[in-house]
Design a protein that fits this description.
The chain is α/β, with parallel strands linked by helices and 755 residues long. The chain contains 30 helices and 23 strands. A seven-stranded mixed beta sheet has the order 2-1-3-4-5-6-7, sandwiched between helices. The protein has a six-stranded parallel beta sheet with strand order 8-11-12-13-14-16, with helices on both faces. It has a three-stranded mixed beta sheet with strand order 15-22-23. Helix 1 (19-30) packs across helix 10 (214-222), helix 13 packs parallel to helix 15 and helix 24 packs antiparallel against helix 25 (648-664). The protein is globular, with a radius of gyration of 28 Å.
C-alpha cells in the first residue's frame, strides 16, 4: 500500500512541516511495510516562479472591497527572486538588519497579497463549480494534481491549517474528479471546526481525522482493506449516507511517539540561510485558562510533556542526520520548570544548538536563574504571551500574570541576550480608551527594554472560549456565527464570531488609539518569520526600529512596485496595464493622495475593456471624490458604475454610496428614491441611518422614526441616532418619547466620554 501525505500552500516558506513528519515517523515505526511519501507543496510552490505569476485581476470582484492590489503589480520577478536569494544566503549578509528588513518587508507584502488573491479564486471554486471558477482554480492547482497522481497513491492525506484549507480542499476536489483514490483531511482545521459540517459541505472528502493523528492514521490503514472503522479513534467517515464520528483517543506517554521524519524534505529549499527544524517538548497548555483562547480544542487530552532525555535524543538525531544547529520549539506553552530541566539536559549533553520558544508565559514563577541557564543552553528567542499591561484586563483574561512580573521577565531576557517578542492584544472586551493610553504610556516609560511588537493583534471572539461562554461577564451581546464556506452541500461556520461590545472600545478603536499614543515615544519591533527570528537572535540581531523608518520603507517599496516592468501588458494578459494603474490608484488612495489616485484610476478606466473592471474603477473614483468633499463628482462616478454592475449585492453597495452623497448635497428626496430601489437589498440596514435623517429633513417624522429605529439596531452605541429620534418625537408632540431618547443619547455620550 502506498500513502502520500501533502502539506499544501499557503504557509510561511521558511517553516519545515512538522505534522506530516510526525505521521511518517510513526507509520514507519508501526507499519514498516507501508510506503509513505511526504510532499511539501508549499515550499515547492514558492520556489517556482511560474506558479506565483498568474494574474487574474480583471475577473476578480474582490478588488471591489479594496482588500488587495493586482498581482500584476509584482511583475518584476527580478525583485521577488532577489528577496528569495537573500533569505537563502549566508548568515553574515542575512543578519544585516537593514538589508533583512527591506527584503522581508517587500516579500511579506507580496506574500500576503498573493495568498489573498489565490484564496479568493479557490474559495469561489469550492462554493460554485462553474466553468470560470474551475478554469481559474485549475491554473493555480493543476500542476500539483498531476504531481500527486504521478505518485500513484492508494491513499492521500492532506494536513491543513486555516491558511491552507482552501488550497487543500480545492486539491481534494480536483483529485476526486480525476481519481477514485480515498482522501483524508487532518490538521488544525479538521480538529477545530465542526467535523460533520466539513464532511457535509465537502462530499469529496472520504475521511477526516481530528485532534492527534498518529494513532488514528495507523489504525485506519490497518483496517482499510477490511473497512472496519468503528474502533479507529478520532476518525470521521461515511457509512450508509450517515456521517459517523468515532470517540477521541490520545497517546498519554509522548515518549512513545516516533521522532518526526524529515527525510522527504530538501532543507535547502526553505527560505532560511540555515535550516531551522521544528520540535515539540509538550502538547497542550499547562495553564489552559486564558479567557480568549480556544486552542484547548486541539489538545483536549490536557497537558503532556516529553522527558527531557527524549527531547535531547531527538535533537542529537536531527543534528546528526541533517547537520542542523537551529531549532524552533512549537509548543503552546513551555513552563519555566520544564525549560530549566530541558536546558540543563542540553548543557550536560554538550549540544551546540540555538533555539527559540513559540510559547512562554512571563509569570511569577519565572526566575532569572532559569533564564540564564536557558541562554547557556542555546535559547535565544522567546514569544511571550503578554497580551496586556493593564492588570484589570489581565485578571479578566485569567492570564494569571502580574504586570510587574511581565516587565521583569522582559527586562531579564533582554539583559541576558534572549530576544523577547511580546504579544499584545488590543480591544479585549470592556477595555477603555484610558486603559489603552495607559498601556502606551507604560511602554514609553520602559522603552529601554520594552519594544512594541508590530501594532498588536485585535481581539477575535472564538467559539468555545470563556468569553463566548460567559458573554454577560465580558459585556458583549449580539453574538452570531458567520459562514466560512457555503457550498451546495452544506455550510461550515467560522470559529470567529461576530459580536457587539456593550462597554469599552472596539478592537479597531483600541488599535488606532494605541498606535497614535506610542508613535514617536517607543521603538517598533518587527515580527518576521519565526525561523528567521531564531537565526537573527542567535547573531544578536534585533529588528527594532523607529516608526518613521517604516514609513520611509513603505514608500520605497511602493516605488519598487510602480517601477516594475510591465512584462505582460502587450501579450498574454492584456488587462495588466489597467491593473497596474488601478493598483497605483488603490495605494495612493490609502495614502490620502486623492488627486494622484484619481489620475491613475482615470488612466486605468481608459485602458479597461470589461464592464466589471470599469465599474470597479468608477467605485474607487467616486470614493476618492467623496473623501475630498467633491460630492457632485462622487455622485457622477457612482452613477456610471451602478449602470455597469449586474451583481445585486454590488449594486447595493453603489446605492448606499449614492444615497450618502445625495444627502451631503441636500438632495433628500433622491436619497429616499435611491434607498428604495430593490437593487439595494443587503444594504437596507446600513441605509437606514441616512434614510432616517433624510425623512427628518423633509419633515416626514413617522418614517424617520421607523428608519432610525432600524439604524439603532445596527449602530447601538451612536448617540446621534437617539438625538434625531428625540427631534422627531418632539415634532410629533410625543414628550415622553422625546425625553427618553434625550436621556439615552446623553447616557451613550457619557459612556463614550469615559471610554
Amino acid at each position: 500500500m502506498k500513502l502520500t501525505l501533502i502539506y499544501p500552500p499557503f504557509c510561511w516558506p521558511s517553516g519545515v512541516p512538522l505534522g506530516i513528519a510526525y505521521l511518517k515517523g510513526q507509520l514507519k515505526k508501526e507499519l514498516p511495510g507501508l510506503a509513505v511519501k511526504n510532499i511539501d507543496l508549499n515550499i515547492d510552490f514558492f520556489n517556482d516562479p511560474a506558479r506565483i505569476y498568474l494574474p487574474s485581476c480583471s475577473s476578480c470582484s474582490n478588488q471591489f472591497y479594496n482588500t488587495c492590489i493586482p498581482v500584476e503589480m509584482f511583475a518584476s520577478r527580478r525583485e521577488i527572486e532577489k528577496c528569495k536569494r537573500f533569505f537563502k544566503k549566508g548568515e553574515a549578509s542575512f543578519t544585516d538588519k537593514h538589508a533583512y528588513i527591506e527584503n522581508y518587508y517587500f516579500y511579506w507584502q507580496f506574500f500576503e497579497r498573493l495568498r489573498n488573491c489565490y484564496n479568493y479564486f479557490l474559495h469561489a471554486f469550492l462554493e460554485n463549480d462553474d466553468p470560470s471558477n474551475r478554469r481559474n482554480a485549475e491554473r493555480i492547482i493543476g500542476p500539483d494534481v498531476e504531481r500527486i497522481l504521478a505518485e500513484k497513491p492508494d491513499l492521500i492525506g492532506l494536513s491543513a491549517n486555516i491558511d491552507q484549507i482552501r488550497y487543500a480542499l480545492c486539491l481534494a476536489k480536483m483529485l476526486k474528479k480525476r481519481s477514485r483514490t480515498p482522501i483524508i483531511l487532518g490538521g488544525y482545521f479538521a480538529s477545530s471546526f465542526d467535523s460533520r459540517q466539513i464532511m457535509r459541505a465537502f462530499p469529496f472528502l472520504d475521511y477526516l481525522i481530528y485532534k492527534e493523528g498518529e494513532m488514528p492514521l495507523v489504525e485506519l490503514i490497518r483496517n482499510f482493506f477490511a473497512q472496519r472503522f468503528a474502533a479507529v479513534p478520532n476518525l470521521v467517515y461515511r457509512r450508509n449516507k450517515r456521517i459517523l464520528v468515532n470517540r477521541e483517543k490520545f497517546i498519554k506517554d509522548l515518549d512513545e511517539i516516533a521522532f518526526p521524519d524529515f527525510s522527504d524534505f530538501d532543507l535547502k529549499k526553505y527560505f532560511t540561510p540555515q535550516p531551522v527544524l521544528p520540535i515539540l517538548a509538550s502538547r497542550g497548555c499547562y495553564w489552559n485558562k486564558c479567557a480568549f483562547c480556544d486552542h484547548f480544542q486541539n489538545y483536549s487530552a490536557g497537558y503532556r510533556i516529553r522527558s527531557e532525555e527524549n527531547v535531547v535524543k531527538e535533537m542529537q538525531l536531527q543534528q546528526k542526520v541533517h547537520g542542523v544547529k537551529y531549532f524552533l520549539f512549537c509548543d503552546e506553552q513551555i513552563s519555566a520548570a520544564s525549560l530549566q530541566r530541558l536546558s540543563e539536559k542540553i548543557i550536560s549533553a554538550k549540544l551546540h544548538v540555538y533555539y527559540g520558544l513559540s510559547g512562554f508565559r512571563p509569570a511569577k514563577e519565572v526566575s532569572r536563574r532559569a533564564l540564564k541557564i536557558a541562554h547557556a543552553s542555546g535559547c535565544r528567542w522567546v514569544y511571550l504571551g503578554v497580551e496586556s499591561l493593564t492588570q484589570r484586563i489581565l485578571d479578566l483574561m485569567e492570564k494569571g500574570t502580574q504586570v510587574r512580573h511581565v516587565l521583569r521577565v522582559i527586562k531579564w531576557c533582554r539583559g541576558l541576550g534572549i530576544y523577547p517578542f511580546s504579544s499584545f492584544m488590543l480591544g479585549f472586551p470592556t477595555q477603555t480608551a484610558k486603559e489603552v493610553e495607559a498601556e502606551a504610556a507604560l511602554c514609553a516609560k520602559h522603552k529601554d527594554f520594552l519594544t512594541i511588537p508590530g501594532d498588536g493583534i485585535k481581539f477575535d471572539l472564538m467559539k468555545d472560549s470563556q468569553v463566548y461562554r460567559y458573554p454577560k461577564k465580558y459585556k458583549i451581546s449580539g453574538i452570531s456565527e458567520q459562514a466560512l464556506f457555503n457550498t451546495g452541500s452544506g455550510v461550515v461556520f467560522d470559529m470567529r464570531l461576530c459580536f457587539s461590545p456593550q462597554a469599552g472600545v472596539t478592537s479597531q478603536e483600541a488599535k488606532e488609539i494605541f498606535v497614535r499614543s506610542v508613535t514617536g515615544k517607543t521603538r517598533f519591533e518587527l515580527g518576521a518569520f519565526w525561523e528567521h527570528m531564531v537565526i537573527l537572535s542567535a547573531h544578536k540581531t534585533g529588528l527594532i526600529f523607529s516608526r518613521p523608518y517604516f514609513d520611509k520603507l513603505h514608500k520605497s517599496i511602493l516605488k519598487k512596485w510602480f517601477k516594475a516592468p510591465d512584462y505582460s501588458s502587450g501579450g498574454k494578459y492584456p488587462s495588466a496595464r489597467a491593473s497596474r494603474y488601478f493598483g497605483k490608484g488603490v495605494y495612493l488612495k490609502n495614502l490620502n493622495q486623492y488627486d494622484s489616485a484619481i489620475a491613475n484610476f482615470s488612466r486605468a478606466r481608459k485602458l479597461s475593456k470589461e464592464r466589471f473592471t470599469k465599474a470597479l474603477i468608477d467605485y474607487h473614483l467616486g470614493d476618492c471624490y467623496e473623501k475630498q468633499g467633491d460630492y457632485l463628482h462622487a455622485v457622477q462616478g457612482y452613477q456610471r458604475g451602478v449602470a455597469l454592475v449586474k451583481d445585486i449585492s454590488l449594486r447595493g453597495l453603489f446605492v448606499l454610496a449614492l444615497a450618502r452623497n445625495y444627502f451631503h448635497l441636500g438632495r433628500f428626496r433622491e436619497v429616499i428614491a435611491a434607498a428604495g430601489r430593490m437593487d439595494a437589498r443587503g444594504y437596507q440596514d446600513k441605509l437606514s441611518f441616512v434614510l432616517g435623517r433624510s425623512y427628518a429633513e423633509i419633515a416626514d417624522y413617522p418614517r424617520a422614526i421607523i428608519r432610525l429605529r432600524r439604524a439603532e439596531a445596527v449602530y447601538p452605541n451612536n448617540p446621534e441616532i437617539n438625538f434625531l429620534l428625540a427631534q422627531s418625537y418632539k415634532s410629533l408632540g410625543r414628550v415622553k418619547s422625546y425625553k427618553r431618547e434625550i436621556s439615552k443619547g446623553m447616557q451613550k455620550m457619557k459612556i463614550s466620554t469615559q471610554a
